[in-house]
Each structure stands twice: as C-alpha cells, then as structure tokens.
Amino acid sequence: MAFVKDPGDAEYFGRDWTDRLEADETITTSTWASSPTGLTVGEDEIVGLITKVWLSGGTAEADYTATNHIVTSTGRELEKSFEVMVRNL
Prior knowledge:
The chain has a single domain (2-86), classed as Immunoglobulins (Immunoglobulin-like).
C-alpha cells in the first residue's frame, strides 16, 4: 500500500489492525518511525483497533517507509509498514 502527499501537507495516516488481532485483544502501545530521514513523524493516537500518525514534510520526489510498531494486550509485538511518496501535487 502506498500513499501520496505533497511536501507542504501535514495529515493523519492510519493502519487498521483488525485482521492481525485476536478476539478481545487490544492495542496498548503504538510507535511510529520513518526511513529514510526527512519525513516528520508527529502526534500519534490509538482509536480502537486503528493507529494513526501525523506525517509532514518530506522531500519532493522522494519515497519513504512509515512503520508502525504495536504492543497488544496479550504482549504480542507486531509491525506494519506502508510507503509514502512525496510529490508536488
């Protein structure tokens, strides 16, 4: 999955964890990282089984990988990543 954003945009991006969690399992912590450097990872939140992150900046014509690491109520640690393509829109 890939998302496209303008370098001047700041917006929320999210991941739905429903397909990876067991019945009654919840998300207790969520952290985000981006590589390579240049895309700014801001405020994040957990909304039920969805994690969200505020991404801004980035260099036009560069591609980044945003990775979400969660810990669940059962102690499992899971990760999902997606590509963010920064383009002048």
